[in-house]
């Protein structure tokens, strides 16, 4: 058995010590004259950021992030491109340094965030702008120099320009006492007077969240400003003044809330925003509410106080008559169906617009004429776009591209029945597309398309079978195209558990790069997965190791029957989070099936997990209460109770900054393997959270996993 720790300080040397097999042996050779897609390719592939469109839709702006193949340092630039032009026609916006979050104001000015000096003389993320002339012809050298707009002492985490181009909305982390983002007041109550201790009170909310220790007294807060020729003026705090009865909350919500949770009113006089109260109930509550702050009053009004479940993503219609948002119905359940709601802004009357449509929407946007809402939602193995009539609630699925829709995102409806969006799939990273009326969309970019085309292609075949209780369950088989001979199988188990390994690209768990090593990757959307109706998603409740395991067993058998090239006698399984739980569950409940397992940040002991994870609402819902309220369910699906049966070689991976599934869960699994004399390895990532984000760590993760799979599956 081997234990090794990886981090930037350790480089890649530890890999050769930990594994005797060459890390990239599986990627040697070509397929029909083309190199196989490698971990190096995945880590260094250029990445498309979110797009923005100019007011008339003539120009689009988007970011491209590149990674140096030797230093693995990343940099991001803005590309400007005409929406009627083809790939490789864009120009890079001149700027010294990395940039992010480009957007256009209604007057055509281009805004973005980048590092700049604050009022305290220190560098922080600031807002910049370029006043693009209407006569600009696409020559980068004729663009005016960027001007720094803000000089705040705190980072600008995000921003939005008002519809009239005269005001600015920004948000970042500052003390509740601050009346502006340009604030140096230290509000963190957890800091000790001496030393570096942290103190928390039982009346505080989160102690830690995702990968950060909390700072009670400091919150994610939003402020509106007037834009001036020299910068900004007249700050208004959206959460109102501090003091008794003040709104104490994070907006956007943490850890993943962003610009989709805040929007200007059509008349630029108010802001709608989503917030979660930062009080003692915070770790057990999914009650996000939508507030409206009239900037002339400066006090927030809760518009959704009657709903104790989630309300989020407020989007006013361009004509100012309606407010659309996404809402759940059941409190304390993070995977409940997200339904589009509509509020008449004149009468205040609200209704659930899509309550009879059994899919959960993930994004919403109005068409410029306010006559339709374009939304995205998981639908079986795709995430397509839908057009919703705000009057009747009728939902129409859009067919935007040839073949499968795969994963549609970043939808921007334009005038003249056009629509900008990104599409990605298992085979290709995101690219930017534009649809014009009923015609199939045209690809605008070549961020990674040609690079992927130069590599040996993979194919993905969808299949369906009768799963647990006879329900139809869907899955996918991804493998190298144009190859002969048997392939070992990899059972790929997604996390969530209310999630999906749908037809989409991932920079972390990527079926294409695993398949390119010579494996057939089999993924199954077991009971509990999203995209098949709410009842199917709900069916995993209090049944973590029941129907899902049966689905995986039947799904693997169905894949082997469907594709004779897959060698079922040589199979490993791998998964993270809930997928990691399933690896631990398989150890004790399907112990004779696999040659090896890869378990990343998986739940090992359900009792200890309940008491150390941060978002307590999650286990409380999935297991029917707290541990003391329902210990029988926690213990029924507790992998540690089957530890005596563990015998399958396992590679355990854990991140030290993972507060969702803390690293002690991984240590516990590794201890069992050692005590049972089962071949095992442990990888500890000191700087990573529940995910692996650093480029070098990602490279080492992939190479390590591939070497482990090769050790057990290849001669």
Automatic annotation (TrEMBL):
Keywords: Hydrolase, Protease, Serine protease, Signal. Pfam families: PD40, Peptidase_S9. GO terms for molecular function: serine-type endopeptidase activity. The keyword Isomerase does not apply. Coiled coil: none annotated. It comes from the Bacteria. InterPro entries: 6-blade_b-propeller_TolB-like, AB_hydrolase_fold, Peptidase_S9_cat, WD40. GO terms for biological process: proteolysis. The keyword Protease applies. Residues 1-25 form the signal peptide. Belongs to the peptidase S9C family. PANTHER family: DIPEPTIDYL-PEPTIDASE 5, SERINE PEPTIDASE S9 FAMILY MEMBER. This is Prolyl oligopeptidase family serine peptidase.
């Amino acid at each position: 058995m081997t234990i090794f720790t990886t981090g930037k300080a350790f480089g890649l040397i530890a890999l050769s010590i930990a594994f005797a097999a060459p890390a990239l042996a599986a990627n040697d050779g070509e397929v029909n004259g083309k190199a196989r897609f490698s971990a190096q390719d995945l880590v260094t592939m250029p990445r498309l950021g979110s797009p923005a469109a100019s007011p008339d839709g003539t120009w689009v702006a988007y970011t491209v992030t590149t990674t140096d193949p030797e230093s693995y340092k990343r940099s991001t630039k803005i590309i400007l491109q005409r929406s009627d032009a083809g790939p490789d026609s864009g120009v890079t916006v001149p700027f010294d340094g990395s940039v992010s979050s480009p957007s256009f104001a209604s007057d055509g000015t281009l805004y973005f965030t980048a590092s700049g000096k604050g009022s305290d003389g220190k560098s922080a993320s600031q807002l910049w702008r370029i006043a693009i002339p209407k006569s600009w012809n696409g020559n980068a050298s004729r663009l005016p120099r960027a001007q720094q707009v803000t000089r705040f002492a705190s980072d600008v985490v995000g921003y939005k320009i008002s519809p009239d181009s005269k005001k600015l909305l920004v948000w970042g982390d500052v003390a509740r006492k601050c009346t502006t983002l340009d604030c140096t007041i230290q509000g963190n109550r957890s800091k000790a007077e001496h030393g570096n201790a942290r103190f928390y009170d039982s009346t505080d909310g989160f102690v830690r969240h995702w990968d950060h220790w909390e700072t009670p007294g400091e919150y994610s807060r939003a402020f509106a400003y007037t834009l001036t020729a020299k910068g900004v003026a007249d700050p208004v705090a959206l959460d109102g003044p501090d003091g008794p009865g003040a709104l104490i909350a994070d907006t956007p919500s943490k850890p993943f809330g962003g610009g989709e949770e805040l929007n200007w009113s059509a008349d630029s006089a108010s802001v709608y925003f989503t917030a979660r109260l930062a009080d003692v109930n915070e770790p057990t509550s999914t009650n996000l509410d939508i507030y409206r702050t009239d900037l002339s009053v400066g006090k927030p009004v809760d518009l959704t106080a009657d709903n104790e479940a989630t309300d989020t993503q407020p989007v006013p219609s361009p004509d100012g008559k309606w407010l659309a948002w996404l809402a759940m119905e059941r409190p304390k359940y993070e995977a409940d169906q997200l339904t589009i709601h509509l509020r008449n802004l004149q009468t205040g009357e609200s209704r659930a617009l899509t309550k009879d449509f059994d899919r959960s929407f993930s994004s919403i946007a109005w068409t410029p004429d306010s006559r339709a809402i374009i939304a995205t939602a998981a639908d079986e193995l795709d995430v397509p776009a839908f057009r919703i009539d705000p009057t009747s609630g009728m939902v129409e699925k859009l067919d935007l591209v040839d073949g499968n829709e795969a994963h549609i995102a970043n939808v921007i409806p334009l005038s003249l029945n056009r629509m900008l969006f990104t599409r990605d799939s298992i085979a290709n990273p995101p690219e930017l597309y534009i649809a014009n009326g009923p015609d199939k969309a045209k690809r605008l970019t070549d961020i990674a398309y040609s690079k992927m085309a130069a590599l040996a292609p993979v194919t993905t075949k969808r299949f369906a079978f009768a799963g647990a209780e006879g329900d139809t369950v869907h899955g996918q088989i991804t493998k190298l195209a144009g190859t002969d001979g048997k392939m070992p199988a990899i059972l790929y188990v997604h996390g969530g558990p209310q999630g999906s390994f749908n037809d989409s690209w991932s920079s972390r768990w990527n079926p294409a790069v695993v398949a390119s090593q010579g494996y057939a990757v089999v993924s199954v959307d077991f009971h509990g997965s999203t995209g098949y109706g709410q009842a199917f998603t709900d069916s995993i409740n209090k049944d973590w190791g029941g129907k899902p395991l049966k689905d995986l067993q039947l799904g693997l058998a169905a894949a082997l029957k469907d594709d004779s090239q897959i060698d079922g006698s040589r199979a490993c399984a791998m998964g993270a989070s809930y997928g990691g739980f399933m690896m631990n569950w398989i150890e004790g409940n399907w112990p004779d099936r696999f040659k090896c397992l890869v378990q990343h940040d998986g739940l090992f002991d359900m009792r200890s997990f309940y008491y150390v994870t941060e978002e307590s609402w999650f286990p409380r819902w999935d297991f029917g209460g707290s541990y003391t309220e329902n210990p029988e369910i926690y213990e029924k699906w507790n992998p540690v109770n089957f530890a005596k049966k563990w015998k399958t070689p396992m590679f355990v991976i854990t991140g030290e900054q993972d507060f969702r599934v803390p690293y002690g869960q991984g240590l516990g699994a590794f201890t069992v393997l050692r005590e049972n004399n089962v071949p095992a390895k442990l990888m500890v990532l000191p700087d990573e959270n529940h995910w692996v984000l650093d480029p070098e760590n990602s490279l080492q993760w992939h190479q390590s996993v591939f070497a482990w799979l090769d050790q057990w599956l290849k001669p």
